[in-house]
Protein: tRNA N6-adenosine threonylcarbamoyltransferase
Amino acid sequence: MLVLGIESSCDETGVALVEALGAGVPRLRAHALHSQIDMHQAYGGVVPELASRDHIRRVLPLTREVLREAGCGVDAIDLVAYTRGPGLAGALLVGAGVACALAAALEKPVLPVHHLEGHLLSPFLSADPPEFPFVALLVSGGHTQLMRVDGVGRYELLGETIDDAAGEAFDKSAKLLGLPYPGGPALSTLAEGGDPAAFKLPRPLLHSGDLDFSFAGLKTAVLTQVKKLGPALDDPQVRADLAASTQAAIVEVLVKKSLAALDATGLQRLVVAGGVGANRALRSQLDAACARRGVRVHYPELHLCTDNGAMIALAAALRVQAGVARPQRGYAFDVQPRWPLEAIDF
Ligand code: ATP
Ligand code: MG
Ligand code: FE
Structure:
């Protein structure tokens, strides 16, 4: 089964071909990505209308690129998968429209996919795929959740952020430090030369006794520091110290809550997914803490942490393999800009 996946929920156009043979773990045949970061950078964030228009420009050339890379014709596609939500409505409509038009022309079925399920399952494309059941830490630009995952489509929410997402905390703090959008990767690079103990920043909800997160207060604390420092922030070492302290606060909460989720479920396996899963400090601290407990940690390949088409094609392939999805022969579509993962029910 050859699955074409199309992702267009935000500011990345991603297209990929994933092949599933029998019940084996699906394999990535080809993938192509166009990031709109340069286009949105001038505005300090994603401009929805510009995002939709750029998806229109990119999606067909990227589709041709993956077919060429995989060395197959468009007729070889057995199933077309697309991101149905959550995300920007206009951006989602581009991917959904193209996917359904293509499938209709080819007389092949389509399968709508939940973007977060794509992130969640993306480590299955790594060299060391996880086994069920596991605890998943989903840390992206719009979400911060801990889930218990018993199988494909069997997701139980254990806790989530009550305000900002971890990626948002990285991005907003980075903006306060004058770093360009999206600030997460830039802040983490700046943090490498800094002292994580230089500034005392809050660890919100660290001892709340539940598995929820809160990052809005951290952004305010960083703002207070920035104002207090004033011109002193021009010193490269001070900037690096504040970046390192901010990253340390976010990472400590993510690590402690992940360990608490492992305790609460009694599971011995952790999967980390979403853009913040690319963060080096998070990976090294999770690896160290989990090694001490004999817990295995699985991550997506670094280039598949942020949005991509491969995770959408993969999620569709895994859903079909597990018998939890019904590929559709009807080509009417809708999108779901707001859509909790626990609510998926096709
Ligand atoms: P969602 O998936 O919740 O809809 P999204 O698709 O925008 O949101 P992702 O593409 O998964 O989110 O991840 C993007 C986020 O990851 C951004 O907030 C970005 O700053 C953050 N990020 C990426 N790399 C790193 C890194 N190395 N360190 C910290 N944050 C990072
Ligand atoms: Mg993005
Ligand atoms: Fe995402």
